[in-house]
Amino acid sequence: MQRYDHLRRILALDPDRDYEEIYGISTTHEFPWDFMQALGFALYRTYAVPSIGRLLARTGEFTERTQKRYDDTVLLLDAVGEHGMDAEQGRTAIRRMNRMHGAYAIPDDDFRYVLATFVVVPKRWLDAFGWRPLSDHEIRASTQYYRALGRRMNIKDIPRTYAEFEEFMDDYERRSFAYDEGGRAVSEATLDLMASWYPGPFGAAMRRATVCLMDPPMRAAFGYRAPPAVLERAVRGGMRLRGRLVRLLPPRRVPRFARQSPQVRGYPHGFRVADLGTFPDAPDGPVSRCGPAGRR
Predict the structure, then answer these.
(1) Fewer Cβ neighbours under 10 Å: the N or C end of the chain?
(2) What is the pTM of this model?
(3) Phi/psi at 68 (5° precision)
């Protein structure tokens, strides 16, 4: 295989019809590490919205059981991507997400915003740090992929194009980012989790590096001071250097799924998708958000 063979395959597909296949090639062959980091950062970004950060802090799931919540989120999204939205495993994962979300009175704009981060943040991450940027085919396929996922989660008024997702996300953040004790608590728990993945002083370095990767509005919403400019340049420069080095590697022949990451630690003996996540005692709430994939 040559370095750009996967991209040639992507360009031969139709992003409006073959979006799951294109998204799968991008996430498991071309950019498995980058997509996992970018999607994690996308979710982290949502904590800066007070209504989201406050809710997550109130449940205690993201502050007291941070590793499990991280693992469950990764594995549920991974199951949809690996097996497909209409396969049994994918449908089960979406049903689990619908049930968890349906237990709370979450505004529709918050659902749209989280969906928008999953579309926009990976594209921006790869523009900045990837071994190549996403092609127009991949951007369109990612947009269609999350539109399809959003429909199965019964999210209303989903943006139609990448540009609309980007506009919605940026406008929502301008209006909504603000400091909140709940969001700060969830952020601190997340940074502690990231630090725990590395031994000794490397954990502290990871915390500082993560703050360097935040943009100023995100840092301000969490109450973090701007890092020294020289440190921020070094961290971002190191990430760009990694991208240039990855460009020199041969293409990945075997897909790399998020469930194979060493950062997913809570299920050393395996798991069932149907057992992932929380099981809130709210029998009437979850049903209201279940789209087609939520029905048994």
Answers:
(1) C
(2) 0.92
(3) -65, -45
